[in-house]
Amino acid sequence: MNERELITKAQSGDFDAFIELVDTHKGKVYAMVRRLAGNRQDAEDIMQDTLLKAIDKIEQFRGDASFGTWLYSIALNQARAQFSKSQQADLRPIEDYLPMNSTAGRHEDIGLFDWQDPHQALESQQLRGILNEVVAELPYKYREAFLLRYVEELPVKEVARLTKQSEASAKSRILRARLALRDKLSRIFEAEYGKELS
């Protein structure tokens, strides 16, 4: 059966059809939720709430997006609800990530540790653990935007839709997340290389 047929059967109360739909997407959805949550217990709670909500709302699914995207959307809403009271801190302004020339009093691209884009770092097994820890420290809204864009590899337009932001706001969150990650990872790597050189 194709997805549309499974959805029709699930909407008419066929639980097996619903399970078949979910089985196709649950691995990717859980992986995203696990990264957002930062720990297994919270991720499992969010995933359970997501599936319960999907069962309750399946009749309202209209097919404007794929079932997988709809499930992502529910999972993101559940994750936001769980973390809405925590990690309300914001990131520093973009200008704060640019090095300051103390004599001229202006920001310049000097002394900034040069390292690869976070997306490329994700592909390195050696750096994955470090990057996951640093991503987990981001405020939730930036972590969410970063993971959707660079881990799930969704286009900015889809990130904006799933996070209920304008494209400009989604781009801003993604950029600020990247700058914050670059800043934190630069400090980690500089400290590590500094030890080796001393």
Write the layout of secondary structure elements.
Blueprint: H1 3-11, H2 15-37, H3 40-57, H4 67-83, E1 100-101, E2 106-107, H5 118-122, H6 125-136, H7 140-151, H8 156-163, H9 167-197
Antiparallel strand pairs: 1-2
Tell me the number of helical segments per DSSP (H or I, 4 or more residues long): 9
The major sheet is characterized as: 2 strands, antiparallel
The CATH superfamily of the largest domain turns out to be: Winged helix-like DNA-binding domain superfamily/Winged helix DNA-binding domain
Number of strands: 2
Observed structural traits:
68% helix, Rna Polymerase Sigma Factor, Chain: A, Arc Repressor Mutant, subunit A, two-stranded antiparallel ribbon, 198 residues, mainly alpha, 2 strands, 2 domains, 2% strand
Textual characterization of the structure:
The chain has 198 residues and is mainly α. It has 2 domains: 3-83, Rna Polymerase Sigma Factor, Chain: A (Orthogonal Bundle), CATH 1.10.1740; 94-197, Arc Repressor Mutant, subunit A, CATH 1.10.10.10. It has 9 helices and 2 strands. It has helices at 3-11, 15-37, 40-57, 67-83, 118-122, 125-136, 140-151, 156-163, 167-197; strands at 100-101, 106-107. A two-stranded antiparallel sheet has the order 1-2. Strand 1 and strand 2 form a beta hairpin. Helix 6 (125-136) packs across helix 9 and helix 8 packs across helix 9 (167-197). The chain is elongated, with a radius of gyration of 20 Å. The model is unreliable at 107-114 (pLDDT under 50).
